[in-house]
TrEMBL record:
GO terms for molecular function: fatty acid elongase activity. Belongs to the ELO family. ELOVL7 subfamily. Pathway: Lipid metabolism; fatty acid biosynthesis. This is Elongation of very long chain fatty acids protein 7. It is found in: Endoplasmic reticulum membrane; Membrane. It comes from Pogona vitticeps (central bearded dragon).
Length: 285
């Protein structure tokens, strides 16, 4: 009886909470409830941690260079498009980079922002293929807790962002992430073309710097809300989540930078050999 009452209360709270959802995202795929994405992400975690490694245990690694080249350059094209849409729906057409509220109207600009927010959310499911490629190529050392956590937490948290607050200052890290992904997946794409193209990857050493700049800007931008007196952003809790995420990864990348470049410590073999996104930058492989 107590369990039934608790369940009823939870359902009642969920229904009440969902009344505040943005009606403009009704009908968008995966937006009806968190359940569809929970199933997808649960299946992803199960595959990359248990089923996939077991399936590949007695098999040779798959040769996926052509598929991965298509995938990586496809993500580049998608990231360019999303960055453009983020800019045209607010960040280059009126946003102040300070207290930018969510526009809940049905103006063309506001609806354009809703569409790109959903597309960015959906793109995070496409990027789950990063880990699938690791497994199929038997690069299991790349499937770290941090990697899986990152690929899981992004779509999960963005569901709530799109469902309740598709726009405003909470989308800045989406814009920035798209720009960074243009650079990163271009790098991965060139890697996937084979050793003959690795001579064009002279800028590999700047990749960590680019990531550091990304997380620094995300953290700096989002923490402004705590220093603005009258910013009436509709969901302040989202700001804390974004800040926490950006700050956490800023610390992790600074730690990597310190050990790899300042202290000069030897990196693990799979990193030392330049394996990125499941593709080795070592010409001898």
């Amino acid at each position: 009886m107590a369990l039934n009452n608790l369940t009823l209360k939870a359902v009642s709270l969920y229904d009440e909470w969902m009344k505040n959802a943005d009606p403009r995202v009704e009908g968008y795929p995966l937006m009806s409830s968190p359940l569809p994405q929970a199933i997808i992400l649960g299946s992803y975690i199960y595959f990359v941690t248990i089923l996939g490694p077991k399936f590949m245990e007695n098999r040779k690694p798959f040769e996926l260079r052509q598929i991965m080249a298509f995938y990586n350059f496809g993500v580049v094209a998608l990231s360019i498009y999303m960055a453009y849409e983020f800019l045209m729906s607010g960040w280059a057409t009126g946003y102040t980079f300070r207290c930018d509220l969510v526009d809940y109207s049905r103006s063309p600009m506001a609806l354009r922002m809703v569409r790109v927010c959903w597309l960015y959310y959906f793109s995070k499911f496409i990027e789950l293929l990063d880990t699938v490629f690791f497994i199929l190529r038997k690069k299991n050392a790349q499937v770290t807790f941090l990697h899986v956590f990152h690929h899981t937490i992004m779509p999960w948290t963005w569901w709530f962002g799109v469902k309740f607050a598709p726009g405003g200052l909470g989308t800045f890290h989406g814009l920035l992430n798209c720009i960074v992904h243009v650079i990163m997946y271009t790098y991965y794409g060139i890697c996937s073309l084979g050793p003959a193209y690795h001579k064009y990857l002279w800028w590999k050493k700047y990749m960590t710097t680019i990531q550091l700049i990304q997380f620094f800007l995300v953290t700096l931008h989002i923490e402004q809300i705590y220093f603005m007196d009258n910013c009436q952003y509709q969901y302040p809790v989202f700001m804390f989540i974004i800040w926490l995420y950006g700050f956490l990864f800023l610390i992790l990348f600074l730690h990597f930078w310190y050990n790899a470049y300042t202290k000069g410590q030897r990196l693990p073999k799979h990193v030392k050999n330049g394996i990125v996104n499941g593709i080795s930058t070592n010409k001898t492989e």
